[in-house]
Backbone:
């Protein structure tokens, strides 16, 4: 029977009944019956509703993750997320099975990563420990010397022990750990005033060593919102003229408009449409409206009393071929799949399937004869201008089969290509000046995005990440097939001149292909997530050579973003990652310094969070890191000199079985502090102002700072 329990009593295997809305999940659970709309902002950093579908019931005894397609997460309700809406299938209830509880959940993993962050292997701290060991050795020698002198002089045992222990406390400064954190504390206070918050203060010193910064594109370099720019429909003769939304003319009614109106994850909550901003803009462009059907509305192939979302044209649209569409089922969008599909029913008409997603992915599911021959060139026209492009497709389905029994593989096959939706994504005003400042300071900048490769290349050029005189080499790698082995080729983006590369060689002669007077850094590699995967698998010896000059990485899944950051770290880069926290939480945690521009709860997994949603925080963080690092060096030198001067002075006096009085120790402390303060500009600034001088990001100063650390 059903009973109410406290969440702490739940164990894996329990069956949950979800009722009502606005429910906080107390555990990870697999949805087995009904549908849910969930806000996963706490975990992903993207506060948009996510549709969860039930796990299909199968007779197989294989693990549940093996029974589903590429993304098993769409069946899981994660701990800490909020169930906005629970929709039962028919007259039943929404049911889920408890999968994990406590620290084993996704939220538990997030909390663990905050409580026990990844240990840092920072050179400054390694050297500090080595230096302390040297001081301990020096103190041991002084202790033996003191024992010998005082015992031979016939001093009482208590006096001998006291003097010997005095030498240890003089030679090994007990205040050294506290002194090293002084610069970090002041830097953290100044960062807080600039709206940058830190959960791992020790990483502030690492900021001073960053020599490579990775950026997400959408929402980080460019504005978060996308505005519809136009639609390019296609027919049997190929692509038609572009329909611009700026013209104010109504969108032509037909399958393309129906696809834009129905292929989304929007929901109607308290009379307002909520969901992904991109989906919302696309739906608003159609001038259709959204309602929910009552229990009296019945559709063939659906259980009775099922509430479904209905989209229909408004009066402003005029004559339309359909009264409306009922959305029967969704196959949600995921970064890994790069597409989403819905099954919809025309009012009194046929059942249809609509797909939207990355143009290359959508075209691969369409009948080849429906994809225009000019598809690649048409796509390139818009991506080279920096537009975001989404493809749409559809097909008619049999009405006999229940919508709940349809598999994704069956729905996503033999589609008819409809056209392209073009969205505008502008650069943020702060992006270009910040990137120019970092590049002038000889700090490498890299773009890692899930967007189209050509769009990423255009944004890299517009933002100044790739300057006008520099070449971009497109790296394309193909998986091994039955007839050929894995291959890799590269071409200049401007000239499209292709040079094949097989398994027989692992050397790229760049100078022949890109003549630029031998100037280092005159070319940049650009590659997609698929090529990155193939190169990692089959050309691992080539990967470091590509990464040394790799600047643009497009169509990267969240897992590949983390892998790329890790590969850069293997090349001895100090890597910073700046993202909006949407699908790059893994990369933010993996990097030496992760900076999240989102205020969602998921962003706390990254060491730094900026309240200002642009990349201006990156130079601030590097400057403060260098200031803290310089202060740490100065404190290190001060404490070492202070100890050695006092150590030598005391041992000389011990030879005469004499020592310094308390007032003499105090005078010596003041004298040493004044001497070092006068001779050290940075330390003087620290004493007088309570903070170190902020170094600029000038190349010469950067090189000096890095050389100091290496020495």
Residues:
């Amino acid at each position: 029977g059903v009973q109410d329990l406290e969440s702490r009593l739940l164990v894996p295997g329990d069956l949950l009944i979800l009722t009502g809305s606005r429910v906080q999940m107390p555990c990870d659970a697999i949805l087995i019956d009904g549908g849910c709309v969930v806000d996963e902002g706490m975990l992903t950093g993207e506060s948009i509703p996510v549709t969860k579908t039930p796990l299909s019931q199968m007779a197989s005894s294989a693990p549940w993750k093996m029974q589903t397609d590429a993304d098993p997460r769409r069946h899981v309700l994660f701990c800490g997320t909020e169930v906005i809406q629970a929709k039962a299938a028919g007259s039943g209830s929404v049911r889920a099975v408890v999968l994990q509880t406590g620290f084993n959940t996704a939220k538990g993993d997030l909390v663990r990563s905050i409580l026990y962050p990844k240990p840092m292997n920072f050179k400054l701290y390694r050297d500090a420990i080595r230096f302390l060991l040297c001081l301990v050795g020096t103190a041991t020698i002084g202790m033996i010397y003191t024992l010998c002198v005082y015992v031979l002089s016939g001093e009482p045992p208590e006096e001998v022990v006291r003097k010997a222990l005095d030498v240890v406390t003089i030679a090994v400064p007990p205040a050294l750990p506290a002194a090293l954190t002084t610069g970090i504390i002041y830097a953290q206070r100044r960062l807080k005033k600039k709206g940058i918050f830190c959960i791992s203060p020790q990483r502030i010193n690492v900021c001073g060593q960053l020599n490579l910064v990775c950026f997400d594109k959408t929402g980080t370099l460019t504005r978060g919102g996308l505005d519809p720019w136009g639609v390019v429909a296609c027919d049997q003769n190929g692509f038609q003229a572009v329909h611009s939304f700026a013209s104010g003319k109504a969108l032509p009614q037909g399958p393309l408009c129906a696809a834009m109106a129905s292929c989304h994850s929007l929901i109607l909550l308290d009379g307002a449409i909520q969901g992904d901003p991109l989906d919302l803009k696309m739906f608003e462009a159609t001038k259709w409206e959204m309602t929910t059907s009552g229990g009296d509305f019945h559709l063939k192939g659906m259980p009775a009393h099922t509430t479904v979302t209905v989209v229909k044209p408004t009066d402003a649209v005029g004559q339309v071929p359909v009264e409306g569409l009922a959305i029967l089922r969704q196959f949600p969008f995921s970064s890994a799949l790069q597409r989403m599909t819905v099954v919809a029913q025309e009012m009194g008409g046929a059942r249809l399937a609509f797909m939207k997603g990355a143009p290359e992915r959508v075209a691969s599911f369409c009948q080849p004869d429906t994809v225009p021959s000019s598809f690649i060139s048409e796509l390139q026209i818009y991506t080279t201008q920096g537009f975001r492009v989404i493809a749409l497709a559809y097909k008619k389905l049999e009405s006999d089969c229940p919508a709940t029994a349809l598999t994704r593989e069956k729905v996503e096959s033999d589609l008819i290509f409809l056209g392209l939706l073009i969205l505008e994504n502008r650069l943020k005003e702060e992006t270009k000046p910040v990137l120019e400042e970092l590049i002038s300071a000889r700090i490498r900048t890299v773009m890692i995005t899930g967007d189209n490769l050509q769009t990423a290349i255009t944004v890299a050029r517009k933002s100044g990440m790739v300057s006008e005189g520099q070449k971009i080499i497109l790296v394309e790698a193909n998986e091994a097939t039955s007839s050929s082995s894995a291959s890799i080729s590269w071409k200049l983006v401007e000239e499209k001149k292709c040079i094949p590369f097989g398994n027989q060689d692992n050397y790229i002669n760049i100078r022949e292909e890109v003549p630029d007077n031998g100037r280092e850094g005159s070319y940049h590699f650009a590659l997609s997530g698929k090529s990155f995967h193939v190169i990692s698998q089959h050309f691992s010896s080539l990967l470091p050579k590509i990464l040394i000059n790799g600047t643009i990485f497009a169509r990267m899944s969240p897992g590949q973003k983390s892998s790329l950051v890790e590969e850069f770290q293997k090349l001895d880069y100090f890597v910073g990652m700046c993202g909006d926290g949407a699908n790059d939480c893994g990369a933010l945690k993996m990097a030496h310094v992760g900076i999240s521009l989102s205020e969602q709860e998921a962003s706390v997994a990254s060491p730094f969070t900026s309240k200002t949603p642009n990349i201006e925080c990156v130079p601030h963080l590097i400057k403060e890191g260098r200031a803290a690092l310089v202060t740490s060096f100065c404190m290190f030198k001060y404490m070492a000199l202070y100890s050695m001067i006092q150590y030598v002075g005391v041992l000389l006096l011990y030879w005469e079985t004499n020592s310094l009085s308390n007032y003499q120790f105090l005078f010596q402390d003041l004298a040493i502090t004044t001497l070092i303060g006068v001779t050290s500009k940075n330390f003087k600034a620290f004493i007088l102002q309570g903070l170190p001088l902020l170094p600029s990001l000038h190349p010469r100063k950067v090189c000096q700072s890095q050389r100091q650390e290496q020495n």
Summary: The first strand starts at residue 15 and ends at 18. The CA atoms of residues 180 and 636 lie 7 Å apart. DSSP finds 23 helices and 31 strands in the chain. The chain has a mean pLDDT of 79.
